[in-house]
């Protein structure tokens, strides 16, 4: 186990580095730079050149990247080319907003998916099972932003039950008025919840009818013991990996949900950073997103390994 | 998501309509039958701040008023600062901090008297503050949109000749110089200001707090020379997604939503909880043909395109009817726009003949476009079909929105562009004159430049405008800057909001939140 952990951790670091290099390379290849964006149409070539030299963008790209990496080693994420504010400050302001969306969504998925999946898996073909399947299919047919706009139109605008957007609210304001979070969290959760629950349902159903379960039943073990001791651990193993993927999905979904509901979170920040060609910011976001994805996947694999060691996951 | 803000005098900033192109349409469809209400907590009373939602991004996100490329920057600057003059709806200049201005007979020395006004810290606004502000904005390193205009001032010769009186000396005569007094990025700041984290201005609101990319909070300033604002607090909040601004307005979370388009406008038209502020002809929709380069260095081809496009169809389809046809000149309805021009009628036979004469039958032309303006892509498709009838093959090349304008400066032979309202003389000087920094077509005409020079040095206003009219008629045919339509600029307000009217962006009354009342 220890060798496996070490190997995977090392690989994770390499993965992050590769992504950073790739992001920087691609970012440098995008047309224009921050000076072009900030001066826009109104800027004269003279003004653009002045800003470019002030931002240090007239220097070669790779030394800038190496410099940024050096700063990263000391925990310094650099300074935003756009605002001149430390990148860490910007991320810090936005991360709270995204966590307020992501953590409740993740908790909901974590608690409800195994429950739903197990119930449906144990009662295949029941009304609950069919309802969940139908809902899952429906949610796959409706893009997340359409779902979001439909919910806002009905629940907020027509019924006046919940706030329509989070425009102008920072982390503190969101905490003071958590009702703002309800609709976005529902949108963010719905599809992943169904996906994960369906995966668990299939595994539970398969394990329940499997030869091992039959054997245990023949040995006279009670059904409850068979399910809790055998069916669930085996069914949750593959689900742990799907669960890790769902964390990535939540990060991606956050970009969209933040936009529709007017949150100033990491998703919107990342999009703006790319549009502004703000490479220090882009790199910091890339590192954060890649790091999260890599760590979560690593944990998912480790849990899967722990639950069912014979199913070793190839790195 | 992804809709950028809109730029001040120049462009409507890239509208990040990309990801959620259908967003507004869907909101419209899904809420069309429902009564949009569900008031937020605010609405009545003077306690809740007045909240205005704008697109942001694509700017330095600073309260430095001299770096104010986008509409949100301008709205924020308007709250905190004053300028010497201000634009009326037709872009003529009205007095603001300046009490009077007059020039010598040659038009080289401008004597300005300031009204009595104070900055938020209680110090008076003086001539030295004006000189400092203008000198700072004239520095290319600052990044003011009015830098070119201000650089005409000779700062070594200009001086204060009293506490509230100064003389600006120009390097060349210019009787249209007062347009600079109202230019964006010419706000008056206290002498010596270099830091804008706790900005001090002389505007109707004082600074409370601001984080780059976040909410800007202001408090009403009772001592403003033009009278205190009617609202106690103002918040300018960023919301890049159009559907988010729309929903926030419909649900009463904000009082003002900037930059509505297409389906959102239709939705708002039916809503009882909101009202539209539609500024007609606010944006000049242009097709730039690079006359300095092949193939449009051949005037017959420029003429062929002018005659070959069907403007009425473009307005009906690409602008969804929210606009009117253009006559290849910027500034319909503005001061200095020549009267009595015949409209451009489509003439396929003549255009086809010109293409044939130029030996350009079947010629492939690539037009640069982007998501900056939602009308461009459909306009490009439609123009391709229209120009096919005269023997030209047009294809569109879509470029990234945020760097679009820097790219088309050097790339391609044809491109879409938009310009918001600004004084006609500035437009001609900065975008049509040969060699001007923002001349994107490469047009060069000695005759045109001479007429502009004569206009600049002509004291009598009517004579001056007559010269400008003559210059414009030449540019209309030759410059390669085709104004095919004018589109509306639409903002929206909640039904409890009073004191705001539809006004063109860049003008005095646009986003003038100090005159707002909430019922």
Automatic annotation (TrEMBL), chain A:
The chain crosses the membrane at residues 95-116, 137-162, 174-194, 250-271, 283-305. Signal peptide: none annotated. It is a multi-pass membrane protein. Its main location: membrane. This is ABC transporter permease. It comes from the Bacteria. Keywords: Cell membrane, Membrane, Transmembrane, Transmembrane helix, Transport.
From TrEMBL, chain B:
Transmembrane segments: none annotated. It comes from the Bacteria. GO terms for cellular component: ATP-binding cassette (ABC) transporter complex; periplasmic space. One of its GO terms (molecular function) is peptide transmembrane transporter activity. Residues 94-412 form the Solute-binding protein family domain. GO terms for biological process: peptide transport. SUPFAM superfamilies: Periplasmic binding protein-like II (SSF53850). InterPro entries: Peptide/Ni-bd, SBP_5, SBP_5_dom. This is ABC transporter substrate-binding protein. It comes from Streptomyces triticagri.
